[in-house]
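INFO  loader      accepted 1 record
INFO  loader      residues=215
INFO  predictor   begin
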Amino acid sequence: MHIEFLVEDSSGKIFLEDILPRIITDQSTSWRIHSYKGIGRLPTNLKGKADPSKRIILDQLPRLLAGYGKTPYVDAVVVIVDNDDRNCREFLAELISITHVHCPALSVLFRIAIEEMEAWYLGDRQAIGAAYRLVKQSVLNNYNQDEICGTWEKLADAITPGGSSRIKAEGWPASGKLKAEWAKNITPHMDVDRNNSPSFCKFRDGVRRIAGQAS
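INFO  predictor   done
INFO  writer      dumping C-alpha cells
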C-alpha cells in the first residue's frame, strides 16, 4: 500500500511528517508528503490545463489527481486542506466532484481541518502545555473546539508573547513562520487517540481505514 499526501503549506508537511508514523503503524504501508504554497481555488473548468509552476493546491488538484490516477504504484491519495470560512459540506462536495472527472478508479480521501489545522493542536491541550510553559488558559477556555473563530489567532493569543495582534503587525511571513514553529513544537507531544477535534479524528480514522487499520 502506497499513499500520497497533499497538504496546502509547509507547516502541514511538518505536522504530517511527525504524526503519520503514529497513525499508520503497518510497516507495509509507505507514503510521501507534498506541500504547496497556499490553498487557492478549484478551476472553473475542471478539464482545463493549470500552470504546474504555480504550487497552489486547489488550482493544481485536477491535474494532480489525473496524474495519480494513471500512476500504477499509487494506491490512494489523501488531500488535507483548511475550510477557512467555506461551507464544509459544499466544499467537500466540490472536492469530490473532481474525482468523478479525473480519477474515478482512484481511492481519494479529502479531509478538511475546521477552521484551520491549528484546531488539531487545540484538540490536544496537554500537547500544547508540554510544548509551551506559559499558556493563557483563559484564552483556551473561551475556545469551542472546531469553531469558526479565527483559530490560529486564538492559539497565538494563548501561547505567543504579544498574541495574534503582534504577529499581524509584523506582517508576512511572520504568521507562516509561527505556524511552522507550532507544528515542530506541539506535534511531537500529541496523542493521536486523545484528540478532541472532530475534524482531526475524521482525518486519523480515514487514514487508518485506507491503510487497512480500521478499528
